[in-house]
Amino acid sequence: MEVNKSLIISLIESALAADYTRVRRVGSQLAKRFAEENDFDAAKAIQALLRKRGVPLQTSGYAEALPRDAGSRLPLIEEGQWPTTPIMLNGEAGHTISQFIEDAQNIGLLSEKGVSARLGLLLFGPPGTGKTLLAGHIAASLKRPFYIARLDSLISSRLGETAKNVRGIFDFVPARNAVLFLDEMDAIAKLRDDRHELGELKRVVNTVLQGLDSLTDDVVTIGATNHPHLLDPAIWRRFPYKAELGLPDRDVRKSLWLHFLFEGEGTREDDAAILAVVSKGLNGADIENIALAARRRAILGNQEPSLAEILLAVRASRAGSPRLLDNRELTTADKKALTALLHETGGVSQAEISRIVGVSRQMVHRYLKEASDG
Ligand SMILES: Nc1ncnc2c1ncn2[C@@H]1O[C@H](COP(=O)(O)OP(=O)(O)OP(=O)(O)O)[C@@H](O)[C@H]1O
Ligand SMILES: [Mg+2]
Questions:
Q1: CA Rg, the chain, in Å?
Q2: Keywords, A to Z (predicted)?
Q3: Number of domains in the chain
Q4: Are residues 137 and 158 in the same domain?
Q5: Residue (of 135, 353, 351, 308) closest to 225 by Cα position
Q6: What lines the ligand 1 site, CB under 6 Å?
Q7: In angstroms, what is the span from residue 44 Cα to ligand 1's centroid?
């Protein structure tokens, strides 16, 4: 074929600017030109190259040119890091996730046999239960780059711009080997308000569906939402794997306390078990926040906060609003409340209560008697 000068110049220019998005775009134009000229070998060779992942520029101090919202100039998608902290999951969610990872690892074999499912996983559940963290872990265990698109940041107040932003994301995702994480998926449903034109919700949903359908089979897509019932049923169907991340159960809460508060120290198992019982109803992020507050106090106050102080903070916390440690002596009312709390948990003996609350066993006995006498 006659050399297409402007495409070649444009290709070199974008390569030197480390603009992968443009390299891919110009590259596919070039492949198309070759195909039009019946040079299918050249077209195929270019397409194969375009499927490769670029050198991770973040580590070398460059940032890959990311698609941005035209108005706010905020990036629509970013490359996330693989997490360094562990994830603790309730049994059932853990099972779905291992299944998903195994299927993703063997997608070649599965599609050869004609039994592959689209690698789409929907994570749903209340805030702070580790959905975002888990998506990163899945990318890490698949050793794939992790692209995060926050759908709430895509919503533009400018008509038509939102659908364009969604398109920008799907155009950007490299054809192969990526994990695309669509965070805050319910943001789309919130377009159903009066600031937006009626047709816009439909248009955006359609763009998301088209985008999902345009991805090749081996792209892993993970969606996350706090409000699964708000999702459009057609979007819901695009994710054959679904895992609910509920509030952590007692075993998971114990692991969270052991990890975040006691840094895995085996000698603190009993204390972690008590905290696990008392922290029923809190999410992983709350437990992390309270634990880290206690450790900050230990470092700055030169003295480790007592288990009693931490238990009081837990008692005053609600899901999504953890109460950090009060910096004060325990009052008699605190001691009474704590005694009752530990007694209610069942498994804690009066001797242990006396040690934790810091009062004599006779006093524990008296507090409990007072409480039962009303
Ligand atoms: N199950 C868990 N195991 C380990 N850490 C957890 C867990 N749940 C929460 N955390 C801690 O809380 C932090 C916040 O969790 P994350 O952002 O992943 O929650 P989320 O479900 O995505 O919440 P949101 O719906 O608000 O986006 C995590 O980075 C982690 O430190
Ligand atoms: Mg999240």
A1: 27
A2: ATP-binding, Nucleotide-binding
A3: 3
A4: yes
A5: 135
A6: 85, 87-89, 127-133, 226, 248, 284-285, 288
A7: 43
